[in-house]
């Protein structure tokens, strides 16, 4: 009889906080930039330089903790995690081991209609390392310290997940919560959210954990799912063959579809942690917590209820729009500007999502404003532009900063409001040029009018409203 295994998964999720400056110095955290231009003696680990905690990092970490039902540590401290790596300028990382800022939280997830809680062991603050850039042609490696000192929070879960679906649901809930808080954009493709997967197998019914492995720095949901499925199969094969699973850190290659060992898995004692002597303890007061709580936004669950009551949108539309904070913000701002919620929703669910899918664009990278979307809808409703032109203008606006639809239509001569006499002349020309369509129309085949409409649209180069043209043709023929 073959053994049945239960999968046990815990995650360590690193999130880059979107502060303007780094965690312990005033250098910019902006993504990109020429190598080593966002640096100073503190974030490059120069002797004698002293770190000073960025207050905004503390506030954002506490906000995430409160939103994930954590207890906030009132007297928190930083520690030094000692290890050598070329992109680690001090040969230690400032982190939190003994007194992390948040502990004992939980988030609710839902998979296949079943809800459960995933417990959070802790959330701690730390600094990011630099970045190694490998030049394979010249066989050289370079270090870019722009990322060194960028503020991170590490969210450490308990081993409560039992499948890849639960892992994705948990990560999605974290991402949604943190984006709604405005604490990070959580772009996996840019590394501002990345996950380490700790996975082990045990026989079903057993309470004892198996030997775990850690797969590092996974930065897409697809890679996370594939790596979990691969590691389950790998460990299962080893156990069934009578071999032991080795506790180790592994790297996932998403292109080749397999993982490989990087190093034996370290424990806390391997890092020789000790309290950082350069940073003072952090005292969190009741007033600070109350202030951060007061700034909490309307979260997704609350928005979904309000959208149903106030906007009367379909449940599917509500679910899709609220899944992305940027989309929900556009809808709310558009309604405040006088836009119709259902029409704004239609543009978000239709053209916006189509373009995002076709161009692999993240919702956080959408350029158009709610104001300009409302203007575009009004231009279309007033028949100043037809549907085809509206879609053309919108496609430009999605990827352009502050493109004003009214100005763009005027500058490019896209208005469909042709002179009535000019339009009537073109319609009569179209009728004369399409006798078979006229004959079919008069014989009761009303769809034949489409050929005449098409002729007019071509003659007018699309700068007229098809509905108006249709009415004019029907009026003349009837």
Give me a quick take on this structure.
By secondary structure, the chain is α+β, with helices and mostly antiparallel strands. The protein has 15 helices and 16 strands.
Structure, described:
By secondary structure, this protein is of the alpha+beta class. It has helices at residues 55-67, 164-181, 221-240, 286-294, 300-311, 315-322, 325-336, 341-359, 370-381, 387-398, 405-411, 420-433, 435-442, 449-459, 466-477; strands at residues 5-16, 71-72, 75-76, 79-82, 92-95, 102-111, 114-127, 131-135, 140-144, 151-157, 193-203, 213-218, 248-253, 258-264, 274-275, 282-283. The chain starts with a strand and ends with a helix.
Rounded average pLDDT:
90
Estimate the strand proportion. Answer: 15-25%
Rg measurement, Å: 29 Å
Question: Helical region count?
Answer: 15
Q: Structural class given helices, strands, pairing?
A: alpha+beta
Identify the quaternary structure here: single chain
Please give the largest β-sheet.
Answer: 9 strands, mixed
Low-confidence stretches: none
What is the topology, as strand order, of the major beta sheet?
A: 2-6-7-10-1-11-12-13-14
* Tally of DSSP β-strands: 16
Q: Helix coverage percent of residues?
A: 25-40%
- What coarse outline follows from CA principal-axis ratios? elongated
CA distance, first residue to last residue: 81 Å
Which terms summarize this structure?
478 residues, alpha+beta, nine-stranded mixed sheet, three-stranded antiparallel sheet, 15 helices, 39% helix
How are the elements arranged and paired?
Elements: E1 5-16, H1 55-67, E2 71-72, E3 75-76, E4 79-82, E5 92-95, E6 102-111, E7 114-127, E8 131-135, E9 140-144, E10 151-157, H2 164-181, E11 193-203, E12 213-218, H3 221-240, E13 248-253, E14 258-264, E15 274-275, E16 282-283, H4 286-294, H5 300-311, H6 315-322, H7 325-336, H8 341-359, H9 370-381, H10 387-398, H11 405-411, H12 420-433, H13 435-442, H14 449-459, H15 466-477
Parallel strand pairs: 12-13
Antiparallel strand pairs: 1-10, 1-11, 2-6, 3-16, 4-5, 4-15, 6-7, 7-10, 8-9, 11-12, 13-14
């Amino acid at each position: 009889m073959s053994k049945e295994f239960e999968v046990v998964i815990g995650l360590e999720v690193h999130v880059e906080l979107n502060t303007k400056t780094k965690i312990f110095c005033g250098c910019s955290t902006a993504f990109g930039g020429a190598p080593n231009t966002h640096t100073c003696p503190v974030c490059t680990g120069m002797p004698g330089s002293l770190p000073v905690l960025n207050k905004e990092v503390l506030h954002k970490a506490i906000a995430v903790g409160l939103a994930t039902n954590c207890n906030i540590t009132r007297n928190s401290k930083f520690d030094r995690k000692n290890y050598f790596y070329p992109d680690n300028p001090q040969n230690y990382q400032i982190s939190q081991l003994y007194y992390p800022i948040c502990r004992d939280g939980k988030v609710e997830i839902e998979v296949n209609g079943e809800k459960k809680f995933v417990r959070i062991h802790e959330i701690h603050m730390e600094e990011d390392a630099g970045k190694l850039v490998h030049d394979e042609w010249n066989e050289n490696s370079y270090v870019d310290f722009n990322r060194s000192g960028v503020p991170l929070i590490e969210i450490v879960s308990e081993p409560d997940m039992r499948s890849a679906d639960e892992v994705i649901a948990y990560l999605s809930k974290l991402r949604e919560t943190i984006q709604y808080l405005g604490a990070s954009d959580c772009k996996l493709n840019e590394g501002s959210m990345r996950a380490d997967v700790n996975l082990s197998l045990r026989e079903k019914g057993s309470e004892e954990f198996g030997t775990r492995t850690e797969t590092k720095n996974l930065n897409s949901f697809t890679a996370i799912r594939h790596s979990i499925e691969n590691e389950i199969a790998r460990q299962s094969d080893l156990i069934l063959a009578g071999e032991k699973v080795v506790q180790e850190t592994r790297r996932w290659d998403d292109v080749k579809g397999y993982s490989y060992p990087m190093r034996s898995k370290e424990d806390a004692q391997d890092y020789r942690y000790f309290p950082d002597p350069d940073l003072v303890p952090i005292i969190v007061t009741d007033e600070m917590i109350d202030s951060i709580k007061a700034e909490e936004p309307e979260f997704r669950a609350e928005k979904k209820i309000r959208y149903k009551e106030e906007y009367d949108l379909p449940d599917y539309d509500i679910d899709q729009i609220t899944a992305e904070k940027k989309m929900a913000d556009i809808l709310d701002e558009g309604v405040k500007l006088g836009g119709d919620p259902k029409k704004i929703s239609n543009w978000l669910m239709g053209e916006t999502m189509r373009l995002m899918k076709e161009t692999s664009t993240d919702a956080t990278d959408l350029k158009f404003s709610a104001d300009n979307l409302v203007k575009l809808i009004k231009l279309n409703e007033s028949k100043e532009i037809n549907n085809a032109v509206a879609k053309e203008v919108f496609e430009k606006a999605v990827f352009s900063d502050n493109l004003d639809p009214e100005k763009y239509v005027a500058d490019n001569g896209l208005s469909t409001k042709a002179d009535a006499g000019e339009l009537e002349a073109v319609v009569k020309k179209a009728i004369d040029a399409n006798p078979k369509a006229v004959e079919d129309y008069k014989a009761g085949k009303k769809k034949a009018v489409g050929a005449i409409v098409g002729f007019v649209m071509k003659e007018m180069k699309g700068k007229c409203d098809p509905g108006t043209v249709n009415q004019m043709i029907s009026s003349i023929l009837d």
